[in-house]
Design goal:
With 357 residues, the chain is mostly helical. The protein folds into two domains: 47-180, Serine Threonine Protein Phosphatase 5, Tetratricopeptide repeat, CATH 1.25.40; 193-356, no CATH class. The chain contains 15 helices and no strands. Helix 9 (213-229) packs antiparallel against helix 10 (237-254) and helix 14 runs antiparallel to helix 15 (340-356). The longest helix has 29 residues, at 36-64. The radius of gyration is 35 Å and the shape is elongated. Residues 1-32, 186-190 and 284-293 have low confidence and may be disordered. Residues 11-26 have a biased composition (Low complexity). Residues 1-38 are annotated as: Disordered. Residues 1-10 have a biased composition (Polar residues).
């Protein structure tokens, strides 16, 4: 037993000295074994890209199948693969591949799917390309710097083609496209009616903030003409109410002579002045909105608000400026649902009158 113990201890000492000798000489094993973590780091993007290429090949098989669809891969399965890969690429920060996965998803949706979901997929692809473009700009990279932007523009345009005309979704797509490509005109074939009206209202508010009230009045006139020409008054009832109040207040504030007023302006002033002077009854907005497509003042303005505006118009026409200043203040205090643009204009008008009256 003593001999066995001594031999085992010697073997242990020998192994310890061998290990210390190798470490002291600085020599390493000629075939080091890589850790599992390093293997995962090296293969992580590669595996995702291989999965993307595999899913893309399934789409090609599906396209080549022609009439023999039963031999082709399932479009739903390929679509699920693209969706899963897109989220994985986004989490990894590889936005250009995420965009291509969204495009693959949209291509699968084109085979008997929904055009709305196809448009949403193209919109996600455009946003991913835009993130890749912004990221390359922050890193000062020149490779593919313009390619990502062109990809975003292409996907935005495909999304507008698939989205329904006149909808809020298409207008949102076009607003994002205008941020990327400001040269897209509001009256181009890409612009929907909702987008044009939104741009006109934004331009009117910007003009008012600059103090260019004549341009603001012109933009509001264009909004009314645009809506009634398309026979879409019922869809924009709240907007038409807001625009009518702003148009009347701007006419009072600008104090234009009759020769400088358009027929629509004269009709608007006569309507509210008649309510105050001749004590005409304000017709409810519901009855006016149902009568054809012609422009009728007060069609979408509540009755109580019509009478308040009539007093303002009457005081302005009869040059009762002290009364006008008080009526403007009362109008803003009485109606709490006024828009910021209406309140700002009331504030400017009251301030200007307070300097002289």
């Amino acid at each position: 037993m003593d001999k066995l113990r001594s031999s085992s201890s010697l073997a242990g000492i020998g192994s310890f000295t061998a290990s210390t000798a190798s470490s002291s000489t600085g020599k390493e094993s000629p075939h080091p074994h890589p850790t599992a973590a390093s293997q995962q780091l090296e293969q992580y993007p590669k595996n995702l890209i291989e999965q993307y290429l595999r899913a893309s090949s399934k789409i090609k098989k599906f396209e080549r199948a022609g009439f023999f669809k039963r031999f082709a891969p399932s479009a739903g399965d390929v679509q699920a693969d693209f969706q899963r890969l897109a989220y994985s690429f986004e989490e990894s920060g590889i936005h250009q591949y995420a965009a291509m996965c969204h495009i693959g998803y949209a291509k699968c949706e084109s085979y008997g799917g929904s055009s709305q979901r196809e448009a949403e997929a193209f919109l996600r692809a455009a946003r991913s390309f835009q993130r890749a473009h912004n990221e390359s700009g922050r890193l000062n990279l020149r490779t593919w710097h313009s390619g990502f932007r062109e990809g975003a523009l292409h996907c935005y345009q495909r999304a507008t083609e698939k989205a329904l005309d006149g909808g809020v979704f298409k207008a949102a797509i076009l607003r994002e496209l205008r941020q990327l490509e400001p040269q897209v005109e509001a009256n181009s074939s890409l612009a929907s009616p909702a987008h044009q009206i939104h741009d006109l209202e934004t331009s009117a508010e910007t003009s008012s903030q600059r103090g260019d009230f004549r341009s603001a009045l012109q933009h509001y006139d264009d909004i009314v003409d645009n809506i009634y020409e398309r026979r879409g008054a019922r869809m924009y009832g709240d907007l038409l109410r807001r625009v009518e109040v702003l148009r009347l207040l701007l006419l009072v504030h600008l104090n234009l002579p009759p020769a400088r007023q358009s027929p629509a302006h004269i009709k608007l002033i006569e309507h509210y002045y008649g309510l105050a002077v001749f004590e005409l009854k304000a017709r409810p907005s519901s009855s006016l909105a149902d009568e054809g497509s012609g422009q009728r003042p007060g069609a979408f303005v509540p009755e109580q608000q019509q009478y308040a505006l009539a007093e303002i118009a009457c005081a302005w026409v009869e040059r009762k400026m002290y009364d006008l200043k008080q009526l403007l203040r009362d109008f803003g205090a009485e109606f709490g649902a006024l828009s910021p643009a209406e309140r700002q204009l009331l504030k400017v008008m009251h301030s200007d009158l307070s300097r002289s009256y």
